[in-house]
Write a structure and sequence with these properties.
GO terms for molecular function: fatty acid synthase activity. The chain is an alpha+beta fold. The chain has 11 helices and 12 strands. The protein is elongated, with a radius of gyration of 31 Å.
Length: about 325
């Protein structure tokens, strides 16, 4: 779906100034950046899952925590790793199933938000996923034979900023995407590069990160999600998101979503006139319907006659309103 949504944005001619991926979302960055083709992106995601399945891993669990990395890191038991630095007040932990569940319960008893999440019984972005690394690296090296340089638009969330100029950080390589699986997600650190007045568009199967995005970025940022889990009409939601882009100041080329119209159109082309109707749901009163006694500042004693003279400067503009050579009072004047 991410590939389809990226292609959708390209069709609309919405070109991003930068992009950040969260976890496996960096494969989407590689596709946007031109480092991977659509086929390579799909296969890379497949190999990530295949390597995780083939490796001998302990039963793992993850959990969403309502504390930032700096607050939660000292509270975690030694067996638990902080897998994702989401924002200043949000993080994800990863570790053995029993220990994660027990720690989640302890946090709840302290009135700290904590929710255990079963991600296929795998503790991603922790020391416990390392057995899958050799197999994933082997698969990706066969797939990505000529790694491409990442552009400056792609802000890495898996390699620390201090290592961006290293060979690992510069290329969208098999090593880079294997490291993505093993390393913590540095989303909070990477989002500091997003301007406070940015238009942030989430490209994902559903708007999972909207809550995090709204808390991470400045109050002047505009947040737009292209999808929403549970929405009864995904196409409608997607097109409404395009409308939000336009309202935010972007210029999506909506005409590209439709086939070009060849003129003149054929005689069988359906007319749109029947779709345009008058809205009679409201009744507006004219001056003739109003009770002048109830209108403040008006009196029936006032002369209702109005004199209009083209010799007067204020009325001279009416001279240009002619029908068949005769000056006619515009109907709008009666309003």
């Amino acid at each position: 779906m991410k590939i389809a949504l990226v292609d959708f944005m390209k069709v609309l001619n919405i070109i991003p100034d930068g992009y950040i991926g969260h976890s496996v979302g960096e494969l989407g960055c590689a596709y946007i950046d031109g480092c991977l083709t659509a086929e390579e992106t799909i296969l890379a995601a497949y190999y990530r899952g295949l390597a995780s399945k083939e490796a001998e891993l302990i039963p793992g669990y993850m959990a969403a925590i309502g504390l930032g990395y700096n607050d939660i890191k000292s509270m975690c038991p030694p067996e638990i790793d902080v897998a994702c630095h989401n924002s200043f007040n949000s993080s994800t932990i990863s570790g053995p199933e029993k220990i994660v569940k027990q720690f989640v319960q302890e946090l709840k008893e302290k009135n700290i938000f904590a929710r255990a999440v079963n991600v296929a019984n795998i503790a991603y972005h922790s020391r416990y996923i390392k057995p899958a690394a050799p197999k994933l690296l082997e698969y990706l090296q066969q797939l990505i034979t000529e790694p491409k340089l990442r552009s400056s638009k792609w802000v890495s969330s898996s390699v620390p900023e201090s290592e961006w100029e290293s060979s690992l950080g510069r290329y969208s390589s098999a090593e880079y995407h294997t490291n993505n699986l093993l390393s913590p997600v540095l989303f909070e650190e990477s989002t500091k590069y997003v301007p406070n007045n940015a238009i942030v568009i989430e490209i994902a199967p559903h708007g999972l990160l909207q809550a995090i995005i709204k808390k991470s970025f400045g109050p002047n940022c505009i947040h737009i999600s292209l999808t929403l889990r549970g929405h009864p009409n995904s196409h409608e939601f997607l097109l409404a998101s395009v409308g939000k882009m336009f309202a935010a100041g972007l210029l999506p080329k909506v005409s590209n979503l439709y086939p070009p119209v060849q003129y003149p159109v054929s005689r069988g082309t359906a007319s749109l006139s029947s779709l345009v109707t008058w809205d009679h749901s409201e009744i507006w009163s004219s001056v003739l319907d109003m009770d002048l006694d109830t209108v403040e500042g008006l009196s029936r004693a006032v002369d209702p006659n109005i004199t209009i003279s083209l010799n007067q400067e204020q009325d001279r503009m009416l001279e240009g309103h002619k029908i068949f050579g005769k000056v006619i009072l515009p109907v709008s004047c009666l309003l």
